[in-house]
Inverse folding.
């Protein structure tokens, strides 16, 4: 992201490290801070200067409580800037994916228990049990080792960029809502097709990076090209749910739009409302549209 507009806007860079891009603001002074300068607060993060001022204002009792209960773990994690959520998602998804590779019925049972088919959210239309959690558990199972490896590589590459920009909670919300969007559109456009994989969430991360980068004034041409190539490859390749990819793109872009419009601390409630509205809309669609599609057939 090196366009002149982006470079000239210093609000897009850490105020202590002018060469480091970030999308996270200190919740007290509202200045941009990079992962190294972030200290986790009860809500959001605060910068080193605000932390210093806060420590000076502490009473003796507060200082004693902080030393006794605060420790250094939470602060150390926040300052490290490591994409912890990405690492956890990688570990959990890879572990489940490797269990799927166990020969025999065990691996197949995991796929059958966590994979998604629209019938699992349509108890009034099918004889399948009502298991709506499959809308998200589908993100952790894959069709093959190559499928798993490619998705985990993409998650590792994107997570190192997007998670530090958004912060861990926002990043996790983006990932899950994008995956939910992929499952919803797959159920609507291909209700009789079973799907597996984290591709919807991965495409949501790419779409969000595109939207946020454009909002910051960056050069997003490369991201757009990569997104388009991957989407059209899935569109024309057999055995790939392009519907889930498209759903992830739409949901990820919607989440990113909410983030770009609610950066300030006083807008946090509207950010939560916006995300909740997206989730409610997706759930309403998946519970209404697929049954109508199947009944129409």
């Amino acid at each position: 992201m090196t366009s002149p507009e982006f470079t000239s806007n210093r609000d897009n860079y850490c105020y202590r490290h002018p060469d480091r891009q970030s999308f996270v603001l200190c919740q007290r002074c509202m200045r941009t801070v990079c992962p190294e300068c972030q200290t986790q607060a009860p809500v959001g993060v605060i910068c080193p200067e605000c932390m210093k001022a806060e420590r000076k204002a502490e009473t003796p009792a507060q200082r004693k409580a902080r030393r006794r209960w605060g420790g250094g773990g939470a602060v150390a994690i926040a300052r490290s800037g490591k994409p912890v959520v990405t690492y956890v998602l990688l570990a959990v998804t890879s572990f489940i994916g490797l269990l799927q590779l166990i020969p025999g019925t065990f691996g197949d049972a995991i796929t059958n228990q966590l994979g998604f088919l629209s019938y699992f959210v349509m108890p009034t239309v099918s004889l399948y049990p009502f298991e709506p959690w499959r809308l998200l558990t589908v993100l952790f199972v894959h069709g093959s080792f190559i499928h798993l490896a490619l998705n985990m590589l993409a998650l590792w590459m994107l997570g190192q960029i997007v998670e530090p920009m958004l912060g861990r909670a926002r990043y996790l919300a983006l990932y899950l809502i994008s995956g939910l969007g992929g499952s919803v559109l797959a159920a609507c456009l291909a209700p009789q097709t079973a799907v597996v994989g984290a591709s919807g969430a991965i495409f949501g991360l790419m779409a969000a990076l595109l939207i946020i980068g454009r909002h910051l004034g960056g050069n997003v041409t490369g991201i757009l090209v990569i997104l388009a190539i991957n989407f059209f490859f899935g569109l024309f390749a057999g055995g790939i749910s392009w519907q889930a990819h498209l759903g992830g793109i739409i949901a990820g872009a919607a989440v990113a739009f909410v983030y770009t419009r609610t950066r300030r601390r006083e807008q946090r409630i509207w950010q939560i409302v916006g995300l909740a509205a997206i989730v409610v809309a997706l759930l309403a669609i998946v519970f209404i549209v697929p049954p109508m599609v199947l009944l129409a057939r």
About this structure: The CA atoms of residues 97 and 253 lie 27 Å apart. The radius of gyration is 21 Å. The chain has two domains: 4-80, 84-296. The chain has a mean pLDDT of 83.
